[in-house]
Amino acid sequence: MGTFRDIGLASTGTLTAPVATGNSNAIAADLIAVLTAVTAGDPRVLTIQDQSALPSGPFELAHRSLQAGLRAWVERQTRLPLGYVEQLYTFADQDRGGAGQHVISISYLGLTREQPASGEQEASWRSWYSYFPWEDHRAGRPAMIELALLPRLEAWAHAAKNPDLRHDRGQRVAVTFAGEGRAWNEELVLQRYELLYEAGLIPEAARGASGRLRQGAAPLMSTGQPMILDHRRILATGIARLRAKIKYHPVVFELMPDTFTLLQLQRCVEALAGHLVHKQNFRRLIEQQELVEETGETTSDTGGRPAKLFRFRREVLTQRAVAGTKLPILRA
Amino acid sequence: MGTFRDIGLASTGTLTAPVATGNSNAIAADLIAVLTAVTAGDPRVLTIQDQSALPSGPFELAHRSLQAGLRAWVERQTRLPLGYVEQLYTFADQDRGGAGQHVISISYLGLTREQPASGEQEASWRSWYSYFPWEDHRAGRPAMIELALLPRLEAWAHAAKNPDLRHDRGQRVAVTFAGEGRAWNEELVLQRYELLYEAGLIPEAARGASGRLRQGAAPLMSTGQPMILDHRRILATGIARLRAKIKYHPVVFELMPDTFTLLQLQRCVEALAGHLVHKQNFRRLIEQQELVEETGETTSDTGGRPAKLFRFRREVLTQRAVAGTKLPILRA
DNA sequence: CTGTGTAATGCTCTGTTGGAGTATAATAAC
DNA sequence: GTTATTATACTCCAACAGAGCATTACACAG
Fold it and tell me: Where are the beta strands (DSSP E) in chain B?
């Protein structure tokens, strides 16, 4: 068993590079991308393999950095420029990669504008909400929560023999799915998915880590489209991160065309957040923060009074602190 | 050059595990810990190697998961139970690990209560602010910002030949170091460090990636104690993450003893945030959020009116959404 | 030309909360 | 008692989030 690696500090004050770790713990690393765009009012994710997997590829020696590797993969795949890229999470799955080898997966969130994916592999865009139908509250709370999810979740909670565990499960169900008069929290995407996973209600949970079906599990087939391995969990992580991020960082604009109306911007935010926002307040906040400027043109595409066209003021990215802006994510 | 890995979906609907990536891109993975405690009003980090390195160790096959690996290392090293653990960032450094091999570093933030480190290696606790002296504003804005940092940063900004670049650098200096009447943003720890790094004002920037001194660089030796490699950058990431997190998640309590006074709690928050907070408002917020409960006992250790002792109500961790609480991090 | 539908836009009202200040109470040290 | 120190209770104010009402500007159907 090892101790902490000893890193030498030369007596001259010159710092030495660490001794290379041997090859005894060789590991493979995969990069996995949650690539998101918003088109026609729907938030979409780029998928491969019949919409059952996120694009991924091995991290190679040729790549200067992890992010460079990811950009290389994605741009080859989709021919899209990756505007905004952010690391999501890294995990190791002992059961992948065969005996005696770990595979480390490093997942990224990337934002772009949807274009027909024209890369080397058949890839397609698909709505977030086909994987997480309970997450879209723009037309009100989805009926499937009460009809399909809550009964089974509560049954699962009640089935616990330990009273503490039973109470704990009940609380988690109530908090994440907004039971007992609580407000829906759109950021708990991952927690909801993991709860459903633990309760055995989604197909992925019925697979062993080996990918084979576990006996005795009864997954609920209406809980959204499954994906391979833990890709759906990674997607949930990306959605949660993005829903949190749009509240204090102007990343929405990475998903918008160069010019847009305020309503288009609002629809984009609503698509991501999964619920409607109050129009007047939204506009007030956007304008008082000086995130956008008028182009001077208008459009009357939508029918109704023509809307002014705006463009994002890129200067704000340097003018204020990176964490300085906020968007209103309110109720309808 | 590869394409995205093809992940098979068997026609039966049973999902297959992916084909193992070959050994051609073998990689070593290191786990690096930013282990933090608060003692005697000072936020500290566990260091090794004469306080010039963060504890780290290779990720091994025996470890079930990344986090399990980290816990194993740290607990062996320090004999401390690791309460809260959170992943920080993963990066790959092409120049480490010798020719033809990448080293991936996965960094973690861990919270605990300081105890004499009694592990296998000589380790010691050291104040955050000996590495980042400009980050401690509890006794007012450190004079060294105006005396040592800003003049050189502004010189660096003015030295840019491209006018756009010059303007951009000036803005970044003003934003991160609160020039021109701006408010200090305590979360920009990493941005400040990176700015100083880019400006060549810290010793680490004078080293090439090989660890040797670069010629022509003139690092400012008063900008805090250096660390090996990019460990100081990782520490900055951890501090920034923690400063952000304490505002909406009750993690401070991981650093507190079982019972504590409200002033002790406040001092702990102030130590982390790097500035003082308004006492009355702090107490108001703590109490109205029902984060703590009285033990019924009081202590008069500090001289002055005896303070009630409180304990953290662990129930809140399940009773409300994980992202549901907030602490006030205001001005003095 | 007129009504109707739809969206843009301007304005008001209100309850909550964050930041800050004032006042009083309870103890130890001297 | 006096002083220093801390705890604790209250109040004040400005900013802001959430919500609603009213008006304006266009396309289109009749």
Answer: 27-39, 42-48, 56-58, 84-93, 102-111, 123-127, 259-260, 292-299, 307-312
Of B9, B95, B100, the CB nearest to A228: B9
Please, which residues have CB within 8 angstroms of residue B150's CB and are 6 or more apart in sequence? Answer: B173, B177, B179
Contact A211/B at CB under 8 A: yes
Q: Which residues of A touch B212 (CB under 8 A)?
A: 14
Predicted TM-score of the model (pTM): 0.87
Higher pLDDT, A213 or B193: B193
The answer to whether B66 faces chain A, any CB pair under 8 Å, is: yes
Query: What is the C-alpha to C-alpha distance for residues A159 and A161, in angstroms, rounded to an integer?
Result: 6
**What is the overall mean pLDDT for chain A?**
80
Whether the CB-CB separation of B94 and B16 falls below 8 Å is answered with no
d(CA A109, CA A73): 13
Average pLDDT, integer, range A229-233: 92
3-class DSSP assignment, residue A163: helix
Chain B partners of A121 at a C-beta cutoff of 8 Å? 3-4, 6
Could you tell me if B118 lies within 8 Å of chain A, comparing CB atoms? no
Nearest protein residue to nucleotide D19 (CA to C1' distance) is A278
Tokens of A24: 């005894």
Name the closest residue on chain B to residue A15, using Cα atoms.
B211
Q: Is A219 on the interface with B (CB under 8 A)?
A: no
Confidence of residue B325 (pLDDT cuts 50, 70, 90): low
pLDDT of residue A3: 37
Whether A213 contacts A206, CB under 8 Å: yes
Q: Which residues of A290-328 are buried (b: 16+ CB within 10 A; e: fewer)?
A: ebbeeeeeeeeeeeeeebebbebeeebbeebbbebbebb
For residues B136 and B274, is the Cβ–Cβ distance under 8 A? yes
A140: CB partners within 8 A, 6+ apart: none
DSSP structural state of residue A125: E
Chain A residues inside the 8 Å CB shell of B120: 3-4
Q: Are the CB atoms for B331 and B274 separated by under 8 Å?
A: no
Nucleotide nearest to A310 (CA to C1'): C8
Do the Cβ atoms of A27 and A101 come closer than 8 Å? yes
Residue with tokens 């330990």: A162
pLDDT classification of A137: cutoffs 50, 70, 90: very high
Distance A121 CA to C12 C1' (A): 56
pLDDT score, position B332: 37
b/e sequence B10-34, b meaning 16+ C-beta within 10 Å: eeeeebbbbeebeeebbbbbbbbbb
Cβ neighbours of B61 (radius 10 Å): 14
β A102-111/A84-93 pair status:
antiparallel
Residue range B273-300, pLDDT digits in tens? 999 999 999 999 888 888 898 888 888 7
B76 or B259, higher pLDDT: B259
A161-187 confidence digits (pLDDT tens): 999 999 999 999 998 998 877 888 899
Q: Which chain C positions have some atom within 7 A of a protein CB?
A: 5-12, 18-22, 25-29
Residue B313 contacts strand D, CB under 7 A:
no
Do the strands B42-48 and A307-312 form a parallel or antiparallel pair, or are they unpaired? Answer: unpaired
Q: Which one, of A3, A262, A195, A61, lies nearest residue B76 by Cα?
A: A3
